[in-house]
Amino acid sequence: MDNPDELIGNLRRLDAATREVEPAFDYAGLLERNAARKARARRRAGFARGTASALVLAMVAVSVWRAGPSDEMHAAVPESIESPAPQQRLVRADTWLALAAIEDHIATIDDALNDARLAAPRGAEVARLERTRADLMDSYARVRYAEMVSTSF
């Protein structure tokens, strides 16, 4: 104990370190934060319910709007009026889905063909699968040709 001032300084630092540290919040603050969190959750749930209800109403309104005239309206039309005969119409359709389906089917046939060739290289199953693949390739070529012709118009 060389210096009494040094000893007193050490004792004061030790006393300051051992004092009780109060928590940054109390129980009432915890309850307030919990109540605020629950209120935010209720508001979000209410907003979500309102949005879902609005979407359901919009879907019902669209389906009613798109629905054709009812059978009662058709019954009110006198039968003396002749309806014109239906006419043929040209319809432009996108070929992407048809081509994708044919390509998928060709890939499936190729897998089955590989398996059949491993099992029996000259079997009847291989011949049937090769004919099926040739038919699919022919269909694919025809759809591609139709797509090319339709784009030139």
Short description:
This protein is an all-alpha fold. It contains 5 helices and no strands. 1% of the residues are buried.
Radius of gyration: 40 Å
Structural class: mainly alpha
Q: What proportion strand?
A: under 5%
Count the E strands: 0
Mean pLDDT: 81
Poorly predicted runs of 5 or more residues: none
Compressed to H and E, one letter per element, the order equals HHHHH
What does this 3D model show about the protein?
The protein is mainly alpha-helical. Among the domains are: 25-64; 96-151. Helix content is 74%, strand content 0%. It has five helices and no strands. It is elongated, with a radius of gyration of 40 Å. The termini are far apart. 1% of the residues are buried. The mean pLDDT is 81.
Keyword list:
mainly alpha; 153 residues; 5 helices
